[in-house]
Amino acid sequence: MYIYIIMNEDKIIVSIVEDIDDIRDALRVLINGSDGFECIHVYADAEEALESMTKKDINVVLMDINLPGMDGIDCMKALKPAMPNTQIMMCTVYDDDDHIFNALQSGASGYILKRTSPAQILEAIRDLHEGGSPMSSEIARRVVGFMQKKGKPSKAVEMLTNRETEILDFLAKGYLYKEIATELYISKETVKKHIHNIYNKLHVQTRTEALNKAFKR
Amino acid sequence: MYIYIIMNEDKIIVSIVEDIDDIRDALRVLINGSDGFECIHVYADAEEALESMTKKDINVVLMDINLPGMDGIDCMKALKPAMPNTQIMMCTVYDDDDHIFNALQSGASGYILKRTSPAQILEAIRDLHEGGSPMSSEIARRVVGFMQKKGKPSKAVEMLTNRETEILDFLAKGYLYKEIATELYISKETVKKHIHNIYNKLHVQTRTEALNKAFKR
DNA sequence: ATGTCAATAACCCATTTGGGGTATTTTATG
DNA sequence: CATAAAATACCCCAAATGGGTTATTGACAT
Known about the structure:
The structure is a homodimer. Chain A is an alpha/beta fold. Chain A folds into two domains: 2-134, Rossmann fold, CATH 3.40.50; 142-214, Arc Repressor Mutant, subunit A. Helix content of chain A is 48%, strand content 12%. Chain A is built from ten helices and five strands, in the order βαβαβαβαβαααααα. Chain A has helices at residues 21-32, 46-52, 72-79, 97-105, 118-129, 137-151, 162-172, 177-184, 188-202, 207-214, and strands spanning 12-17, 37-43, 60-63, 87-92, 110-113. Chain A has a five-stranded parallel sheet, sandwiched between helices. In chain A, helix 3 links the parallel strand 3 (60-63) and strand 4. In chain A, helix 2 packs parallel to helix 3 (72-79), helix 7 packs across helix 9 and helix 8 crosses helix 9. The longest helix of chain A has 15 residues, at 137-151. Chain A is elongated. The first copy, chain A, starts with 11 loop residues before the first strand and ends with a helix. The A-B interface holds A 101, 104-109, 127-128, 131-138, 140-141, 143-144, 146-148, 150-152, 171-174, 176, 204, 206-209, 211-212, 215, 217 and B 101, 104-109, 127-128, 131-138, 140-141, 143-144, 146-148, 150-152, 171-174, 176, 204, 206-209, 211-212, 215, 217. Chain A binds a DNA duplex through residues 161-164, 176-178, 186-190, 192-197, 199, 205-207.
């Protein structure tokens, strides 16, 4: 028995995981009909992909999210460890925040929508293979919006005085009252008083609640 | 005295903040020479921009980061509140993580590099004005990498048992021992024991330290 | 000058937390 | 079946936390 390993430095080797026959076929035809690309395998569901894909030398996986059984995001999570050099591009109809963030946080490097034109899909595959993260600018806007939310303290925190904010930062680092006191050259009781005031302003009773309210996470 | 307010629904109104004369002029000529765009003002530094820009009706600001005096990111922060409907695009030579994240977290919606071609710059401005977040796919990759780091628990957490992980999640929400106990139908002492084991595995002494170690932030 | 706010500090007291044990039961796993 | 790991539970005890209260000081505005 012989095992042939496909190695072709000229072409970008692509695999497709997509349950809808027409779309899967169209993508394969598109990719195989274009110079510099080769689609070596297509899978109709996650389970099938997990069985046969891992041992192959794939540059880029086009992964649908909505699959029967295991979804594309979980499939990607399962594939990733076995193929660390393969780039995964989500290619789906979902353009909501949850799917986008979930996919990108779980290891996808590109995210395109199915309505993307054939030329742009090829462009995106090449981009991905060359180390970029292709995504339409609407998708990018969602991602940027996400970062902006994360970076901002809540409004309630704006009610805090400078000293209180300073002490809140120490709390976030896990300092004890007495450590904060030493750090700021004030008494432990004063630290406690400040923290008490912080809790009143934020309407919380404990350190962790305060941190959760102050830095949304 | 009459005040003329420029309102032109056909054109995208652009302002430029850029200290290098040649680049500033080139951008203005590019924008004014293109259908559908109009550059109504250019500024050579942040201070000048802050004085005169706020009262005008601008769709898009092209902002350099490296300016003499106040930098472009601080300038943007100062401008934002006064012009909430204006989209800001950073247009700079910096492609390092710090500048990118700082700019996007602080309110920029687009981020392009100065080596972007004229046609792409116009495309990006239109994109931005239509609600997208234009950025090159290298920049996007940085942003995606950032999200992937944030979302991942540290390796140490993988040593925890299922029950321990479950309890750690309650800790993160700020639950008291007894609340966790009630929630899981186990005794408070057992919760304490689990938490004690968690602290041993993570080499920490307090709740906050554990959370900081478990979910990098 | 009067009043408010921020920061400082102290006191009492109950609850919570966490370190050190030990022990039983349940669940995997060989 | 035997053994290990995980989950359960309880004990003692010291330290940390947080609620409530009162008081002094300096700064700043009315």
